[in-house]
Amino acid sequence: MSFQTYIKNIEDKTGKTAEDFQTLAEQKGFTRNGELVVKATEVTNWLKEDFQLGHGHAMAMYAYIKGKRE
To answer: Exposed, middle or buried by CB within 10 Å (0-12, 13-18, 19+), for 29?
Structure first.
């Protein structure tokens, strides 16, 4: 599955865009000045618990929050 497919599936499942997750991560204090300040595990655990994402989808969104776009 491509990165963009993961992101699209997350949006379909949660109703939130990748940009929404970027904003939520900032509000939770996971990013500062656009840079991640926590470990991947903290972000993926949040995504799994609050949005019921599987590990692969949580890692894809972590990568997006970290700056990956393709």
So the answer is: exposed
